[in-house]
Write a structure and sequence with these properties.
Largest interface: A-B, 43 and 43 residues
CATH superfamily of the largest domain in chain A: Tetracycline Repressor, domain 2
Number of strands of chain A: 0
Low-confidence stretches of chain A: 1-5
Oligomer: homodimer
Radius of gyration of chain A: 19 Å
CATH architecture of the largest domain in chain A: Orthogonal Bundle
Distance between the termini of chain A: 60 Å
Order of helices and strands of chain A: HHHHHHHHHH
Number of domains of chain A: 2
CATH topology of the largest domain in chain A: Tetracycline Repressor, domain 2
Chain lengths: 200, 200
Amino acid sequence: MAAKQFIQELEEQRRDELIRATYHEVAEKGYSAVTLQDIATRAGVSKGSTLYYFASKEDLFLAALEWMVVHNHARIRRAVEAVDDPVEKVRAAIASIFANAQESRQFFLAYSDFVSIGARNKRFHDLNARFYHGCSGIDREIIELGVSTGAFRSVSIDDASSMSRALIDGLMMQWFFSSEITFEEYRRRCERIILDYLTV
Amino acid sequence: MAAKQFIQELEEQRRDELIRATYHEVAEKGYSAVTLQDIATRAGVSKGSTLYYFASKEDLFLAALEWMVVHNHARIRRAVEAVDDPVEKVRAAIASIFANAQESRQFFLAYSDFVSIGARNKRFHDLNARFYHGCSGIDREIIELGVSTGAFRSVSIDDASSMSRALIDGLMMQWFFSSEITFEEYRRRCERIILDYLTV
DNA sequence: ATTGTTTGACCGACCGTTCAGTTTATAATT
DNA sequence: AATTATAAACTGAACGGTCGGTCAAACAAT
């Protein structure tokens, strides 16, 4: 049993390696430019092996998207839960999202690809839609907490969470395409605008 | 000369047909799924002809991106210039952007592809960056006008235009991936949030 | 006849997927 | 303990198909 458990862990580890390799390859080259050979080479296995663990290229990429979104969300959530005050929660979420230019860049690169695939592929679209809500880290609960404690003005909760999410996504894209100001400045701008909108 | 002029117009027309065909094909199938044959067929010419007018697939796609962005921007600009009051200008821009769900969908589909290409291809990136500023239609001049006439509160002009643009992009994406509320409701939400942020 | 335009067959490269077979690890048997 | 059997893990060659780009020939216009 212990052996079997061990085997399963190894298997899980292999899958994880392949998923990480996929993520990095997609971030680097873009979805359609990445070949199974690229991924296999990066993960240190053969092309045949990758299709031993994932039935198809699409399955592997789908797993990579899920992995990427789940990990990202978990990271932000941890940062948010570390503080109590609703304003600080918002600050923590934004700080977490704009923590590292290099990582944000990678995430944006991979995610923009998955968005454009999700626009036409039902499986990717559904996965995107499933993870979209609250994925900014500034969830409904935070807004509700802020309103109930009087820290936020009582703007519609839907508007507030929609606004936060949209602003983060939109500013990420601006940062990516216009190199006028620094990543750090975009972080400050994001915090400023969102808190300006939320607070009294 | 008249004949030559006529020829040139015909040539220009061919190029335009190819560009439109490219735009529609990309919106439908996605950049990497579209083949030169697809475009040629839609435009009613042969693949060879396509490459007679555009040196490469990349050149054609680049022209399509430029066409798409320029036309979109011009359309919004016309709507904005039709009214005088800064608040009405903002309303007009948003109304123009959220005018037609079908067209917005097409635009989003094509543009999301070009974004992900622009993330790695310098030519596409540069084109994106060049057209990015003021492309939301809520340009700096509108903000300045609003502030000077007292219609807007004197928030930083950079923040205000950044915010408008980001919100429009972000809400478009939300609309695309979460079908909870209608396109029309997203339009209203967009207007509400932006004007709430801009006005006193 | 010359120049410009159009075509479709063709080439070479590429890539996802399959598969027959090898290696490795575990279990069974002697 | 040594050997064999069995299944899982893994490999790389090969296949079938696609696609961007080339080109020689055909066609049209002046």
